[in-house]
Amino acid sequence: MSGFVLHERLAADCVVLGELPLSCVLLAKDGRYPWFILVPKRADVCEIHHLGAAEQQQLMRESCALAGLMEECLLPDKLNVAALGNMVPQLHLHHIARFVSDDAWPGPVWGRFDALSYNNVDGEVARWRERLARLPDFVSAE
């Protein structure tokens, strides 16, 4: 983890929920969609293939665990999982629960609408930290 610093854009747009062995777990500050981001705690890594083989596998385990938890808790119509880096070069993996009833369905969520603040962000953060505690090796940020 030496030299790792969370990109300023991610820090501004998200709340840190906690950590898994490889990744920081973030909640995007957009109450319009259940949107989480995994950020491997590695300096100067921009692409999944820049990680070593063991870390690639660990990222996939963490991603699948998060996706499974989201599916269990939210029952989405679709989970969007993507590693995009057009605005933030630091490797990060988006996990967005999508519903046919959401504002952007079936299109992408990026750039469609301004972020919608949570009515109670502290309550949402606490709820997700409690849920994430079911995952092995999750350590809450609080």
From TrEMBL:
Q: Which InterPro entries match?
A: HIT-like, HIT-like_sf, HIT_Hint
Which UniProt key words apply to this protein? Answer: Hydrolase
Output the Gene Ontology terms for molecular function. Answer: hydrolase activity
Residue ranges annotated for the HIT domain, each copy included: 3-105
Q: Which Gene3D superfamilies match?
A: HIT-like
Look up keyword Repeat and say if it applies: no
Pfam families in the cross-refs: HIT
Q: What is this protein called?
A: Diadenosine tetraphosphate (Ap4A) HIT family hydrolase
Q: Which organism is it from?
A: Oceanimonas baumannii
